[in-house]
Amino acid sequence: MSPEQALARIKSYDGRLKAFVAVFDPALGDGDGPTFAIKDLFDVKGVPTGGGAKVPLAESPAAHAVVVQKLLDAGWRAVGKTQTVELAYGGWGTNRAVGAPWNPWDAKVRRAPGGSSSGSAVAVAAGLVDAALGSDTGGSVRIPASTCGVVGLKPGRGLVSLTGVHPLAPSLDTVGALARDVATAARMLGIISGPDGKTATREAFDAEAALATEVEGRRLAAIPLEHLGEVNADVGRLYLAALDRLRKTGVTVQMVRPPRALDESFAPNGLLMAGEGWRIWRERIETHRKVMDPWIVKRFEVGRDISDERLAEAHAQRAEDQKQFHAWLAAYDGLVTPTCPIPGPPMDQVDETTSPLSRLTRAANYLDLPGISVPCGLTGDAMPAGLQILGRPRDEATVVALGAAFERVSGWNGRTPDLSGFA
After folding, report:
1. Which of 152, 230, 276, 353 has an alpha carbon within 20 to 30 A of 408's alpha carbon?
2. Beta strands 77-82 and 20-28: pairing type?
3. How far is 53 from 31, CA to CA, in rounded Å?
4. What's the confidence (pLDDT) of residue 138?
């Protein structure tokens, strides 16, 4: 869509959706490419980086984040910055510091949009932009993609620059893409990928080659429902139906139980987030805790009791866990699960002491695997669910190829929420 079309839709619908914290009118850039939004954890020159906080993380950045600059250089147009969970530390999409966006699939009941890239997913789902940037430390691109019914693509580490993106846990952080279809997300990843002399060390991703790759004959592992822990009945039904559709693409889907359950990565991933996050943000938290979301403060404070020795042990254990899981996954072209075990619940039912939405997504960060969430249907309450496809290390191409193949048979057919209740 053109920037003018995007800005008109933002004006029509975002008063209630609240996906954006800043709107660029005129849009940034001078090309004729797709429109995009930027999670408010990424620097934009001269624009405050709020980070979901009342006190901005940067008042006036001197330069765009590398990924933002790459998109502008490629002719894409930026129309604004989107809401995030404060300091990106949460999976529900809530924010008691500056407010949270509204999941566009239910205009009557305010439902969790998923986090932490909440506004980016809402903006894409509502058709306010063609695509959006997000960050993913434990599922923060894939979770809101699932709960808002869009595509969320997370690369492995080292493919995309983190320069100009404020960190949560440097050993886990990645930058990803959200879009309504796999092709747009893949093309966004292709543009933002490639070496930057700092955090990105890998060669650029070839989106067109990945999208043209045939998947017939590929072998996928899928985890049986009984080995996935507690899964919402509708999500489970949609997951099994998605596996049947996947088989229609010519892939073999083998029901297997990995040697390490995905949710075994939940706690160690959380330890790294808290330990690294506290060391990065301790001074801010001690200074501004009174105006911060209290749940965010509590999560970071867990890291206060994690010693340097314990953190080093956790990193060593992670390396061993990666080695073992990568060896097992080498026998397959990918691993399939539901993205989230539940759909986005009503906001008044959110339990901030738990994080079920990230139970099956954190493994991709902990084990350093590329992953994608693709819409796979609606629950009985007409809320989206996502299918997660994880790939072997550094094999974003197969993840995209499989995601695109599933998209073609998914039956989703570009479904979009009814926004009449938000006008």
Report:
1. 230
2. antiparallel
3. 32
4. 98
What residue spans define the domains of the chain?
Answer: 3-265+312-422
Dist. CA 338–CA 372, nearest whole Å: 11
pLDDT over 90 (residue 217): yes
Residue 294 near residue 96 (C-beta atoms within 8 A): yes
Q: What is the pLDDT of residue 413?
A: 83
User: What is the three-class DSSP state of 325?
Assistant: helix
d(CA 204, CA 213): 17
Query: Under a CB-based contact definition with an 8 Å cutoff, are residues 228 and 410 in contact?
Result: no
Cα distance between residue 112 and residue 34, in whole Å: 27
117, 118, 135, 140: which is the annotated catalytic residue?
Answer: 140
C-alpha to C-alpha distance for 173 and 398, rounded to whole angstroms: 21
Closest among 183, 199, 257 to 225, alpha carbons compared: 257
Q: Using CA of residue 170, residue 157, residue 148, residue 235, what is the dihedral sign?
A: negative
Q: What is the mean pLDDT of the chain?
A: 98
Greatest alpha-carbon pair distance for the chain in Å reads 56
Contact 321, 268 (CB under 8 A): yes
User: Is CATH 3.40.50.2300 the classification given to domain 3-265+312-422?
Assistant: no
* pLDDT surpasses 90 at 377: yes
Is 154 in the active site? no
Is residue 39 flagged as an active site residue?
yes
Residue 281: pLDDT band with limits 50, 70, 90: very high
State both tokens at 256.
């297997």
User: What average pLDDT score do residues 226-247 get?
Assistant: 97
User: 308-346, pLDDT tens digit by residue?
Assistant: 999 999 999 999 999 999 999 999 999 999 999 999 999
Cα–Cα distance for residue pair 254/423, rounded to 1 Å: 45
Position 80 pLDDT exceeds 90: yes
> What pLDDT sits at residue 414?
82
- Asked if pLDDT for residue 187 goes beyond 90, the answer is yes
Query: Percent of the chain scored above 70 by pLDDT?
Result: 100
Question: For residue 84, what is the DSSP state?
Answer: -
What are the distances in angstroms from CA 384 to CA 117, 124, 211, 335, 374?
17, 14, 24, 21, 10
Choosing from 70, 116, 171, 373, the catalytic residue is 116
Contact call for residues 143 and 340 (beta carbons, < 8 A): yes
Handedness of CA 346, 352, 353, 358 (dihedral sign): positive
- Position 287, amino acid: T
Does the annotation count 198 as an active-site position? no
Of the residues 18, 39, 70, 81, only one is catalytic, namely 39
Q: Give CA–CA dist 403/42, Å, rounded.
A: 26
